[in-house]
Protein 1
Amino acid sequence: MTTTPNRRIFLSGLVAAGGVSLAGCRSETYLPPDYGSLFGVSDALSMGAQRLILQRQPLAREFAPSLISRGFPAIGTTLPEDDAYLRDLKTGFATWSLPVEGLVRRPLRLSLAVLKAMPARTQVTAHSCERGWTAIGQWTGVPLAHVLRLAGLRPEARYIVFDSVDGWYESLDLFDALHPQTILAHGMNGAPLPVQHGAPVRLRVERHLGYKSIKFINRIRVVESMAGISSGKGSLAAEFGYSWYAGI
Ligand SMILES: Nc1nc2c(c(=O)[nH]1)N[C@H]1C(S)=C(S)[C@@H](COP(=O)(O)O)O[C@H]1N2
Ligand SMILES: [Mo]
């Protein structure tokens, strides 16, 4: 991504004024995709500060299975009104596949069976929605890092963009994309991922507010910059005024 030097100095100056110095760090690592607004500046501050502070304790807390919430709310889209999706649902997603494309050496098309046969991680984590509720769920899925390794990131790769059947999109920088708890979840609480929670595959990106964990994923793209992807803000939630960086 390209940054103008004066913006970079402006942002790192603000971070230093906040008590955290970015000396010795390549500042572009800390910049969210859009920082042309006040939201963007606060994104950069909290993101830069958290990246430094969390370096030594990077995992989200995991809970005992006995703490799994009985009624995990289903929020936003709970059944996409999309003909192709509804057809896939009827066949148990037998012919569904997930493209992984963009700045990769080997573009992939992963069927659900292939995804389910990949190495999986199961984690019991707390989900916090920006609307003020929290619930604990158990998620099973393929580490995104594994899929990105199979596809092979090109050197220009900076962000991973997720599209979904209901028109949402989200994106992660490589720090979150390669984080061990970032998974393409196909299971919840020991069963296949239920429709209302994003079947067949949703993102789980722990340590971020709930909206970052996009449901009903239908495409993964690797990009250098968010420019030209919708309004360039990095996520639909960001277009509605929420922080692109949703770290908690
Ligand atoms: N595609 C898509 N992803 C989405 C949403 C949505 O409406 N559509 N809602 C988001 C919000 S705000 C939250 S809190 C979580 C809710 O996930 P859940 O329905 O499994 O509780 O999904 C997020 N991902
Ligand atoms: Mo949410």
Protein 2
Amino acid sequence: MGRLILVSLICCFLAVVVTAEDPYLFYTWKVTYGTIAPLGVPQQVIMINGQFPGPNINSSSNNNIVVNVFNNLNEPFLLTWNGIQHRKNSWQDGTPGTQCPIAPGKNFTYHFQVKDQIGSFFYYPTTSVHRVIGGFGGLRINSRLLIPVPYADPEDDYTVLIGDWFTKSHAQLKGLLDSGKLLGNPDGVLINGKSGKERKSRPLFTMKPGKTYKYRICNVGTKTTLNFRIQGHQMKLVEMEGSHVVQNVYDSLDVHVGQCFAVLVTANKKPMNYYMVASTRYTKKVLSATGTIAYVGSKIPASPILPPAPVGWAWSLNQFRTFRWNLTASAARPNPQGSYHYGQIEITRTIKIVNSNPVVGGKLRYAINGVSHVDTPTPLKLAEYFGFPEKAFQYNIIKDNPEVAAAKPATLAPNVAQITFRTFVEIIFENHESTVQSWHLDGYSFFAVAIEPGKWTPEKRKNYNLLDAVSRHTIQVFPNSWAAVMLTFDNAGMWNLRSELTERRYLGQQMYVSVLSPEKSLRDEYNIPDFAELCGLVAGLPKPHPYAGA
Ligand SMILES: *[C@@H]1O[C@H](CO)[C@@H](O)[C@H](O)[C@H]1NC(C)=O
Ligand SMILES: *[C@@H]1O[C@H](CO)[C@@H](O)[C@H](O)[C@H]1NC(C)=O
Ligand SMILES: *[C@@H]1O[C@H](CO)[C@@H](O)[C@H](O)[C@H]1NC(C)=O
């Protein structure tokens, strides 16, 4: 937290125009390569300010976050803030469809407000396959003082970033995908950058006997669902991707790629050390990492007997069904209008997202409804904003209700669907494959109303949870199953809908939704920031400011 300066209302001189501005958090981040050996083999990773994982951002609802990112890699780089909604401001979302990448040796300042959000999130690179070798870190949003939180203040608040891990270099991993091969099985699992197999491993966390701690667990990995558990301790689930949930108690949690959970753990067992365990699910060989939690004042080592992981994905589906939104907890909510009554809003559009034949021209690609996305030299949002989208891409090339054309190869093209501002839309993710998928939408939370085996039909709507489904931003889909989410598209901008599994995202399983306000008003969307880089077709052009008024 060294570089963090909190400027709360020093701007009194401007008080005439700027009243009660929300506090600012300033960060300067240097992105570099670095070498670590978490699995015993020295390898190149991406560090931020010399740290792997990168620094934690610790903010409170409505804070303004300013991160000046210096790219000292030899490749273009971008970061996205998974789950941060950037209301009216897709300019800060950090995807190749919304901004020009930060060139090597250059810097870009992200400037966004965590408006009306609380919870546990993380950031990660969206360029190339950088995420596989690091550049990720935790991002938490605390409730503002005075806003009641549905549990007592924990003694401390810990971030636990878990993920599968490869020992191959970035060039090797990218080379595999570029030549149409998969990355294969990961080589291990890391917890906060460590495997637990290091010769001298110090405790990752400490707990004082009798006290309760919050652990925020996120799966920052590449492709593998992980089961997380702590020897001898149960976890009380309190929050998930920005929503307070009904506080059930779990022995272990399946954390799919891209997801975050916050749990409370009380140090009420025999004072000694305990292992936390993150182990792979649905892989032939189970890989795991351990991290030590030490009770303060005790030197007794943790037992080598690790708690077992659950077996099969039906267990995970049942666990999903126990997740409920806490309807009575007061908390910041980005879109409170109607959010309690989502079950009564009329669905205006149903979009079914289906995998299709992954091969294009003999090479492995992944697709959505027959289209395998490719990034354009001119970011999609810039082409649209400058008024000539047709020079960069074509809208709406996929169908909402695709036939499952398994035999037909996918088309390579930028994939952008227009969605009418403020409409209430249902998205069905249908998985016809034998692996678990994980889907994420930027700019929004959605109500995760159902996951079921089989194929989706309109009759399945009677099985939806229309009362207290959790509002979140990432959802898994089990093999040969479907998942349904619902949301109001009330956040104007260009937003990435993507597989959280890096090899699939990189090979085209992503798309953008363009949500435009017909009003062209600053009330609905911000103009491009003055400091934004321009590239591709818009390089050197004067910046238009089409949105006016407030
Ligand atoms: C995070 O922010 C909260 C609220 O401002 C503060 O109480 C807490 O000490 C901070 N934690 C860390 C680790 O900086
Ligand atoms: C780059 O960093 C400098 C400070 O070192 C800052 O003044 C400038 O605004 C930054 N540029 C961008 C595009 O963020
Ligand atoms: C939901 O939040 C309320 C209000 O903060 C709290 O009193 C209650 O215990 C929570 N309910 C559950 C089931 O977790």
Protein 3
Amino acid sequence: MGYFRENVEKAKGYEPGFQPKQTDVIKLNTNENPYPPSPNVMKVLAEITPERLRRYPDPLGNEFRRAAAEVNNVEPDYIMCCNGGDELLSMAFRAFCDQNRPVAYPVPTYSLYPVLATLQNCEAIEIPFDDEFNLPPRLVGTGAALTIVCNPNAPTGSFVGVEEITSLADELDGVLLVDEAYVDFAEENCARLVRDFDNVIILRSMSKGYSLAGIRFGYAIAKPELIAGLMKVKDSYNVDAIAIAVATAAIKDQQYFKENVEKVKTERQELTEQLRALNFEVSSSFANFVLAKSSYPASEIYDKLIQRNIYVRYFDLLGLGDKLRITVGTRQQNEKLISALKEILSE
Ligand SMILES: *Cc1c(COP(=O)(O)O)cnc(C)c1O
């Protein structure tokens, strides 16, 4: 017998986007925000005292819960702090899924979901989106204990309307987790559903919209009963003192946040138009990346960009083999990408 549980033995593990060591590269492969976090974040960091480090953090991160509650128009007991949005996904699998309690989600989507399903030893019911990335009606009636809808979806950038998600929440027997890691770049969100539905969990991340991928902070919004259940599976001190302080400073600075998001949206539009001018097919994105389809082999473009120190993401997966996922960078980064693409396509 091997050392590992059978499903751990056969799991491949999540493959994160490449993190190059050099800093002089153009990194458009993991959907980080190209702009720095709020200046208030750096002030809070500078004020961290040894005493703060010596002591355990607040196990619930109540300072952040209050700030996030205010932004989302709920009470603090509707909020749970997580060590990145990814930790919430992991908690949800542990809380709701096992051999007899499957997970369901539309595909293509975030490639972490099947990895977590394998580790939890639960069946993953994958239901394809149609060509326009509408919510598949077959998501209702799967019998899944947990249904996940990534909205805006990765890596497509597509968005399903709040009304459709509301009907889905209404029709499902199990829990609906709406992964809103990218919702800061969309026009609306599903947070208000937690008022009416006792089976809805909203996932938020501080990594993208708030430029804090490095500190690992995300949160859940859900009815207090669901939050209380999820808390049973969390580590006792799942978010550290520095992360709580930093994330709180960031979410409180809504003015900076909104300006930052507007800049990304402006550049997203510009990048989309430039790519279309190079004959890429780019559908509208509601996230901080675009998915570009090319008639020139996408994997070759990917390799040739790396030779020029430009990193984007290529997925050798069903329906994605002819596409590149490109994070929206600064104007200057996007321009360098576009001129590199012009060179590559004319070779
Ligand atoms: C980035 C992301 C998350 C959460 O990321 P964290 O950095 O762990 O907060 C969750 N879902 C999707 C689809 C993402 O892209």
Protein 4
Amino acid sequence: MAPFLVRFLPLLLLLLPAALREYYLPAASNRRAQDAVVADGDKLRHPIVLVPGVSCSELEARLTDAYRPSTPRCGAMKGKGWFGLWQNGSDLPAHDYVPCFMEQMRLVYDPDANEFRNIPGVETRVPNFGSTVFQRNPEHTDWCLEDLKRELERVGYRDGETLFGAAYDLRHAPPIPGQPSRVYSRYFRQLTALVEDASTKQQGRKNVILFGHSFGGMVALEFARAAPAAWREKYIKHLVLVAPLPASGFMESLKNFVSGSDLLYVPTTTPLSLRPMWRTFESAIATFPSPSVFGDDTPLVITPRRNYTARDMADLLADVVGAGGDGVVEPFRRRELPKARYFAPPMVPVTCVNGVGSVTPEQLVYSDGDFDVEPEVVFGDGDGTINLISMLAFDEEMRRKPGQRKQYKSIKVRGARHGNILTEEWSLNLVIQEILEASRV
Ligand SMILES: *[C@@H]1O[C@H](CO)[C@@H](O)[C@H](O)[C@H]1NC(C)=O
Ligand SMILES: *[C@@H]1O[C@H](CO)[C@@H](O)[C@H](O)[C@H]1NC(C)=O
């Protein structure tokens, strides 16, 4: 343990007073521990349900008579049943379908219902629920938990028997209690049934480890928080969150909204060209920096005309999209802002693993005030995507309630980045070790 701690020491002293309570496991013991579990066999095995990152879930669409395509090309699939709208990004330019993809993926905010919906005539569904076959990005074939699945199979997990997946509609963000969401009501019902099935299928019934990565970490957490206490106790063994998106937000999310995101891989497109579609997603506005964590006197976005602090996010939205922020500012205020003030702990054992020590956007400077030009970025600490300050706020939140504190374990992994924490062998091993530990406790 000692040499391992030495590497962490400067970080512990400078940044993480709370981290002294945290646990670090020497990577060398991973294989031994895994092999011990293999030897122990089914006796120890709790089923695992994987909730992947944002770009990993596929989406199918069906176009009905009510659909008014902007061009004849976009109407080509009308009346022809379900087809893969977000399934193979390379297919979209190959079929000259990118503008139609952008049109049919769009969400619109309905102020009467306080909900996001598809545009008229577009019906959507998420295929493969329950399966661990996720969307693949040909540029990053290991992004959607491929390596994690392989390692879990190596220690004896079996797809469809002890290993399951819970894809979701990437455009919507999980609601907190009291917020309407037809999409998530349905998803949480499906996930409840999946967890129950996975559990009762095992000999002697075994409760389930729910695993969430990045956006999927936020989804898994909200699911656990929304579940009735008795159900959670019966069915959830452990919540393992790897680089979960924090409700208190992070700057990269803001940058993605303002300047465009490359999270959805579609050849021939740019973040800027996909931006009009991205900006209609609820997921695009769900994790902006919150004033309680990012403060209300530090400018986060700097332009010649005006600086914006975390308290000015609604104004920034309005200035960025124009037209008074129609369709964006209202849902941001009514649906997203309350999430940063919602602190209910999930009240199940939680292990949260985050990378730290990588340069992470902390301030965006648009020096000529043009939001279409990539900003100059001022960097701080984090996992390259999520700011350290937000990770620490989440830790604090989890430890605030005595009932959660004693079943909350937080691990900061120096040098692990948001994008590769589950693909670099050393950090992946650490995560596997944590999953096995969770199933033993
Ligand atoms: C995805 O689409 C491209 C272009 O149409 C095609 O070449 C490729 O085989 C497809 N991949 C899969 C997995 O279907
Ligand atoms: C914005 O913030 C920068 C850096 O803190 C400061 O130099 C500048 O004067 C501010 N601009 C405005 C318009 O307040």
